[in-house]
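Lab notebook, entry 460. We have the chain sequence and a SMILES string for flavin-adenine dinucleotide, and the next step in the workflow is to get a structural model of the bound complex before anyone spends time on docking refinements. Request logged below.

Task: model protein plus flavin-adenine dinucleotide, output structure tokens.
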Amino acid sequence: MRAHPAEYELVAPRTLPAVLALLAEAPGDWLPIAGGTDVMVQYSAGNLRARKLVSIWNLPELRRIEVFPDEIQIGAGCTYTDLREHAIVNQEFALLSCAARWTGGIANQNRGTLGGNIVNASPAADSLPALLVYEAELLLVSLGGEHRVPYRNFHIGYRRTQLAPDELIRAICLKRRFSEYYAQTRKVGARNAQAISKVCLAALGRLAGGVVEDIRLAMGSVAPVPLRLKETERIAKGKQINAALIQLARTTAAAEVRPIDDIRSTARYRAAVAGNLVAEFLEQLSAGGSMSDVLARWNSLRADAAEGEILPCCGSKAWARGMAARRPILDEATLLATSDHVWKSLPESDWMEAFHSHPRIGESRSPDSSPARSAAWSGEEQLEVGNASEDVKVALAQENRAYEQRFKRIFIVCATGKSTPEILEILRRCLRNDETTELHEAAEQQRQIAHLRLKKWLSL
Ligand SMILES: Cc1cc2nc3c(=O)[nH]c(=O)nc-3n(C[C@H](O)[C@H](O)[C@H](O)COP(=O)(O)OP(=O)(O)OC[C@H]3O[C@@H](n4cnc5c(N)ncnc54)[C@H](O)[C@@H]3O)c2cc1C
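Result returned:
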């Protein structure tokens, strides 16, 4: 049962030495509280054993990100929002900023800190696999001074760490040598944000002369502590990626993880997913695996510029905002999946905005409000229509009018690769749909158009 609030003591010394002195005075008596997003959950559940809390939220030494030529030092009190908004973290440590993006919701990202995620020591914590593959080091500080420990040794068992009671994590150090690596991260869960992972992956790889020169794989939710898949890395290193290696890596990863059954998933499912994620990563690494230049640049743009650049791929401003808010996006598969997710979550009014950014099928002129790139893509998509016979064009114009009278909007079809008679046939079929069915068919066509345009955008 939760203790009465009066039984708790909360102090907030203004300086780091004052906090460290308090911790040293009575080691174990005082519990540091940073953002409080884990501590307060324990409090509400009646599981918070500590009665004395010392706030470290406002300590400047813990709240800054320092950039040096060969490494960055992220203050342990930096929030997920701080990570998401930092240019170097975004550009060079995208696995970490991705994890920050899908840790809880915005409110949680404004309060939750990287140091808190490490010390809370959940095997499902989203940022920890990224720290493993980047081979992070932790700066631990106490009154006695500061020392560095490799993060890989920090978690010594289920929810146990090597932190001494009088110590704090001051900073997390990351070497700046991964910007040339292909990076991929996956969170498999009920959904990305606001759900605890069933399995999460952070992976880095680099090919040289067609063979795997370096590979780093780490997973969460598959063992009592976040796990680096050393055996799977070993069998892949120095090899050419082919079907046999992918299969071997899949089975090795599935055997190397040590998952359990719990309320979120089963051990069998988690092992199968672990194998599949590793196989998918190797496939993409062999297919050229490096982050597209377009995505790398777009990830580091200011939000308004990023929205403006991606808008022509869909036409809905809310969609463009949603996409920009979900950066960094590391690869094409994630880009397309994110597009689907954002698109499906929009209300009808935003769908309409996207529909109306297209020219009528059979007409080349885009609405004046459409960006030039959208108009150019529309022209390419409707290339076939321009070559149709006059009869077919007249029929198309007639059916377009009928459609607009019936549904009060223009007809949407993903025209790429379709002949004009095919489009006419689809249009006639759509005219027989009821309102709701047709709205969803149009939305599906728009989803497909966005996919094709996103792929074109990536190859610009
Ligand atoms: C709604 C919600 C959704 C969430 N979703 C996710 C999610 O999707 N993925 C995920 O990984 N986590 C998630 N979390 C968990 C949580 O937000 C993170 O673990 C967060 O990073 C904890 O940071 P904090 O600053 O809030 O930690 P606090 O609650 O302040 O502290 C947690 C622990 O860390 C210790 N601590 C904090 N900072 C330091 C330091 N610098 N040195 C030494 N000890 C320290 C504290 O003493 C305490 O033991 C979620 C939480 C909530 C409430």
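Notes for the group: Residues 31-39, 41, 56, 62, 76-77, 103-104, 108, 111-113, 115-117, 119-120, 125-126, 163, 168-169 surround flavin-adenine dinucleotide (CB under 6 Å). Worth checking against the assay data. Residues 79 and 113 are 4 Å apart (CA to CA).
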